Amino acid sequence: MRHFPALFARQVRGYLYSPGFYVAMAVFLAVAGLNFWRLLAQSMQEDMSLAGMLFGSGYFWIVFLAVISALTMPLLAEEKRSGAIETLLSAPVTDVEVVLSKYFATLAALAVICTPVLLYPRLASMFAAEAAPVDPVQMCGGWLAMMLCGAFFAALGLAVSALTRSQASAAVIGYPLMCLLFFCDYFENAVRGGAAAAVLDYLSSVRHVLDLAHGVLDTRPVFLYVSGAAFLLYL
Prior knowledge:
This protein is mainly α and 235 residues long.
């Protein structure tokens, strides 16, 4: 792993020098902010928790998954399309170093994009006396939920990118697959109970996210996302 730092820095620089990174960040923070403002205004009439206002909206996670797709779709697909992958793999580096450097650079970029969301409740409490109090446990749980989901879906996006030679193909395959897995609990009614419904309930990211954002730390989603990410990186 001696070449990992250089490869990691190369990928991070690729993000920082790309206008698309800043566009994705601006769009995500704008949508997350507008959604939080809408739910904050709604909470004046209804009793809503801070976790529900920040992480309880499907719009938030749809844009979150879109950001992950935008970050991961060019990782290997664009390298193969441009021929840069041949130069990279002919260098004295291993496949493990290439995959892990791209993966952890993506997680670092995702953390930079998503962390400012945690400032929204503090800003709301500064300018609105009626705003819900900031609970640090919920904030930490919500951030952990974002990063756990990000770790799994970034690995999925990287795996899809490795299968294609086009960013567009990677996005067309990867993004719907991410949404399908994230919102898979919506299909519970279709299977009408039984083992299939139990599996969908366990795989549901929506349920795990809300539990973590409410301060309920369950080791099952942690194991699910970490082991799932490791398996996808191995593939």
